[in-house]
């Protein structure tokens, strides 16, 4: 029997959008709310689809980090003082949703967990989010 689960994690990060013309082209921060829906078969011994703390651990790798487009000229300079997570394109809420989904899937695969992300929402403000299914 397939079972669905849900986990919410909040993180703080800074980013900027290199190819955007407006305020978001400046380095700025957000308190992001990440919502993850997963589906899978509960393990026979534990009846757990995936440990909620594993989802939290994967998402929290982004907490208190600077996330920039890998082409951003700020990367080498900031990296002299603080680690930078780079992305293949501007780190929008849309792209961050894809990256977190892929990170969760890769972690599950490495651990032999068959659960899959069915939906993820990345809120960059209380009124704006990206959703992938």
SSE topology:
Layout: E1 3-15, E2 28-40, H1 52-59, E3 65-69, H2 74-79, E4 84-87, H3 93-111, E5 116-125, E6 128-132
Parallel strand pairs: 1-3, 3-4
Antiparallel strand pairs: 1-2, 2-5, 5-6
* Strand line-up of the largest beta sheet: 4-3-1-2-5-6
The CATH architecture classification is: 2-Layer Sandwich
Tell me the CATH superfamily: 6-pyruvoyl tetrahydropterin synthase/QueD
The global form is elongated
Number of domains: 1
- Largest sheet data: 6 strands, mixed
Helix content: 10-25%
Order of helices and strands: EEHEHEHEE
CATH level 3 topology? Tetrahydropterin Synthase, Chain A
Give the termini separation.
Answer: 21 Å
Mean pLDDT score? 97
Number of helices: 3
Beta percentage is 35-45%
Q: How many strands in all?
A: 6
What top-tier CATH class fits best?
Alpha Beta
What would you report as the Rg, rounded to the nearest angstrom? 16 Å
Low-confidence stretches: none
Q: Structural class, from helix and strand content?
A: alpha/beta
Give a verbal description of the structure.
It is a single chain. This protein has 133 residues and is α/β, with parallel strands linked by helices. The protein has one domain: Tetrahydropterin Synthase, Chain A (2-Layer Sandwich). It contains three helices and six strands; from the N terminus they run E-E-H-E-H-E-H-E-E. A six-stranded mixed sheet has the order 4-3-1-2-5-6. The protein is elongated. The mean pLDDT is 97.
């Amino acid at each position: 029997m397939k079972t669905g689960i849900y986990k919410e994690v909040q993180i703080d990060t800074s980013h900027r959008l290199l190819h955007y013309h407006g305020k978001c082209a400046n380095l700025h921060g957000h308190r992001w709310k990440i919502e993850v829906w997963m589906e899978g078969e509960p393990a026979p011994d534990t009846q757990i689809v995936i440990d909620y703390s594993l989802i939290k651990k994967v998402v929290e790798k982004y907490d208190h980090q600077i996330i920039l487009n890998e082409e951003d000229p700020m990367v080498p300079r900031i990296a002299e003082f603080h680690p930078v997570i780079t992305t293949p394109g501007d780190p929008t809420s849309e792209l961050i949703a894809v990256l977190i989904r892929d990170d969760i899937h890769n972690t599950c695969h490495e651990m032999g967990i068959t659960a899959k992300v069915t939906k993820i929402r990345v809120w960059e403000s209380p009124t704006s989010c990206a959703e992938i299914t």
